[in-house]
Amino acid sequence: MRHFPTPAYLLILFLFTLLAAYAHGVSPQGFDVTLLNIVQGWKTSLLDQLMNSMTFLGETWPSIILAGFVVLWFWVKGYRREALGLVVALVAISLIGSLIKGIIDRTRPDGGQFSFASGHTAYFTVFTGYLYYYMVRVVRDSRWLLVWRAGLILLLVLTAISRLYLNVHWPTDVLGGFLLGVLVLVPLVWIVDSTIYDYDLTNEQLQRG
Questions:
Q1: Which of 29, 88, 119, 199 is deepest in the core (most CB within 10 A)?
Q2: Alpha-carbon span 123 to 84, nearest angstrom
Q3: How many Cβ atoms from other residues are within 10 Å of residue 76's Cβ?
Q4: 169: how many CB neighbours lie within 10 A of its CB?
C-alpha cells in the first residue's frame, strides 16, 4: 500500500462523520431497533457462552495478552516494523475510540453509557485487518494462510454480532466501530509499508554503492 487511497479514505471518513452525528443527535430507531431485536431473538445457551467468550476476549487484559503473543510472533520472525506497527495501531484505536465515546456519549441498549462507537468492534477491526494484511509475511503456505485469514474474518464477525446479542450496542455503534477501525488501520498500514519500502530501497542502494 505505497499509494495512499485518498478518495476511498475520505469517503469512509465522511460516512463515519455522518454516523457519529446521527448517533449523537437522534434516538435509536428503525434500523437500529429492528436489527437489534432480530439478533436478540437468536438466544440459546450455546450462543450465550460463545458471545460471552467473544466479549471476554475483547476486555482489556485478554486483548493485551492476545496482541502481545502476535507482536512477539512477528518480532521473533524478524518482522519488527510490522510488530511495532501493530502496537501503535492498537494503542491508537483504543485512545481514539475512548475519546469519541466521551464526545458522543450515546446511551447503550441496556442503559449504560458511551455506546458509540463499539470499542470491541473497532479494536478487532484493526487487529484482524492488520493481521490479514501482514499474515502473508509469516505464513508462507497458501493453504494455512487461507485458514488463518478465514479465522480472522470469523473473529471480527462474531465480535460484531456479540455486541448486539449481549444488548450492549446498537447496530450503528457496531458499524461505527468498524468504520473507525478502518480509519485508523489504513494510514498505519500505509506508514508501515512506506517505512519498509524506504528501508529496503536504502539497503539496495548501499549494496550497489
A1: 119
A2: 16
A3: 11
A4: 30
